[in-house]
Amino acid sequence: MAAPAVFLDRDGTVIAERHYLKDPAQVELLPGAAEALKRLQDGGYLLFFVTNQSGIGRGYFTMEDACRVQERVEALLAGYGVRLAKTYMAPEAPDQPSRGRKPSPAFLLDAAREFDLDLSRSYMIGDKLIDLECGWNAGVRRSLLVCTGYGRETAEREGNRLRDAVVVSNLAAAAEWILQADRR
After folding, report:
1. Could you tell me which residue, 163 or 17, shows the higher pLDDT?
2. CB neighbour list of residue 43: distance below 8 Å, 6 or more residues apart
3. How far is 97 from 107, CA to CA, in rounded Å?
4. Residue 103: is the preceding peptide bond cis (ω within 30°)?
């Protein structure tokens, strides 16, 4: 039987939003984020990051910088027993051609093939409309908007466009919603 997954935007969802983060020393897990991921992992979900890193395409930092930041995030999460199945990163700027840049579902579809995932039992969590659209475009069960990072602004600005989303305060609330939904 194909496994369920939770796909997560990284910046503003799991870690504090930093404008074009390139310094691993500035990585800060959002309160309760690691514990929430651990609950999802223990609940049987494979965890994936799907992140747009346009600072690379814009020339603000290098892929090596982005990889060092990602290594720091993964090290912090490992301290809580959280292991990501994989991170998918789109380095292109918004005006550059990109196969995987959200809202494209390409990375979710790639993960489904590579890890034998059931997208209809999977979820997407993020703080921007493009995160939610990525999940919708891939056919996940639900997309959840967290009101951390840019989430509060997104909820206020997008209003009716979020009618198919679940809007929650933070990643802990998203994890609770998902785990409760699976019990129903």
Report:
1. 17
2. 178, 179, 182
3. 15
4. yes
For 5-183, CATH gives 3.40.50.1000
Query: Which residue type occupies 167?
Result: V
* Residue 105 · residue 138 · CB < 8 Å: yes
Domain parsing of the chain, residue ranges: 5-183
Catalytic residue among 11, 65, 127, 131: 11
Residue 7, pLDDT > 90, answer yes
Is 9 tagged catalytic?
yes
**Which entry of 9, 65, 127, 131 is annotated as an active-site residue?**
9
Which pLDDT tens digit goes with each residue over 69-113? Answer: 999 999 999 999 999 999 999 999 999 999 999 999 999 999 999
Residue 164 annotated as catalytic: no
Q: Give the Cα separation of 142 and 132 in Å (integer).
A: 9
